[in-house]
Amino acid sequence: MSFLANRLQRIKPSPTIAMTTRAGQLRQEGRDIIGLSAGEPDFDTPEHIREAAKQAIDAGHTRYTPVDGTPSLKQAISQKFQRENGLDYAVSQITVGTGGKQILFNALMATLDEGDEVIIPSPYWVSYPDMVLLAGGQPVVVECGIESGFRLTAEKLEAAITPRTKWIILNSPSNPSGAGYGRDQMRALTDVLLRHPQVWILADDIYEHLVFDDFQFVTPAQVEPRLKDRVLTMNGVSKAYAMTGWRIGYGAGPEHLIKAMGKLQSQSTSNPCSISQYAAEAALTGPQDYIRDSRRAFQRRRDLVVAGLNECPGIECPTPQGAFYVYPSIRELIGKTSPDGTLIDSDEAFANALLDEKGVAVVFGAAFGLSPHFRISYATSDAQLTEAVARIKAFCQGCT
């Protein structure tokens, strides 16, 4: 009898964390490494948010809070949904967790029985399928390639739905592709979902505020109010306010689902950090200038990276609508040999050779369910990005 639970065999460690860890190890060995694998803003948390956390400590807010969030933070979240998305949620319909990942995990663990299906468009965030598997569900991956702008179409959604489908996960703008669903594109999906009342929608809106050009963010319950009673809308402060380490995510949905998620959280992590909750409240209710400024910086970086990668032989890089990632194709490089003689027979081989030979850490596309691609996070300085693109170009030019 194995000591470790069989359920652990269903999942694998996060490839993004693995690549970031390997890059860190090479850096400790003295290598000049540019890390583009971690999805984390490189800006400091805004000062007024940090001050709110300090004030919370001084005021003695260092004890347990209600399991799934303080009433005042939930009220701030309710106001955010009304102000920014036109959605009305009572405090009893809101839950707060230790990061957006816990909100997703709680929802899936609280609702999936063995064999229940969850539709996941690929490329997808690496954790979606593993969380579904851990909860006993079955991921149904629907490939959404570069030809469709990395977006799920109504036809593909209709074809993927079965009597066992319980959820679909929609992430817009997307990690890893940066692709976003405009109102008409989202409406096409919600029209399909109206015909299948057993299917719930898990909307991962964590990159809501990181959108570029004239793209207008929308969320499913906003586009189709008739679906609101079977939508869980997840968001958080990590990306929008450079608060990844504060670990605060939140979700809003039907009260019976929110209660079930709270029940699960009460027997796992219990409440999120009290100090972080006060900081998140300040983020949602305070000045929003940071969002505008960071969006401008990320758009500049996006344009730098897209232009540079499209000058690299064998790389095709679409322009994303949001987030801080690009997801270039390396189809023309498959089968070639790297400058130091490595056969590039997959996007994983490409990523490993690029790190070994040029010191640039990216994440291979197979980790996100769609090859042959790789993901770059451009949440780092212009200077680092310029140097990284130059190294990638030199790598590609040396492939034969």
Automatic annotation (TrEMBL):
Residues 32-392 form the Aminotransferase class I/classII large domain. Its cofactor is pyridoxal 5'-phosphate. It catalyses: L-aspartate + 2-oxoglutarate = oxaloacetate + L-glutamate. GO terms for biological process: amino acid metabolic process. InterPro entries: Aminotransferase_I/II_large, AspAT/PAT-like, NHTrfase_class1_PyrdxlP-BS, PyrdxlP-dep_Trfase, PyrdxlP-dep_Trfase_major, PyrdxlP-dep_Trfase_small. GO terms for molecular function: L-aspartate:2-oxoglutarate aminotransferase activity; pyridoxal phosphate binding. CDD domains: AAT_like. Keywords: Aminotransferase, Pyridoxal phosphate, Transferase. Its EC number is 2.6.1.-. Belongs to the class-I pyridoxal-phosphate-dependent aminotransferase family. Homodimer. This is Aminotransferase.
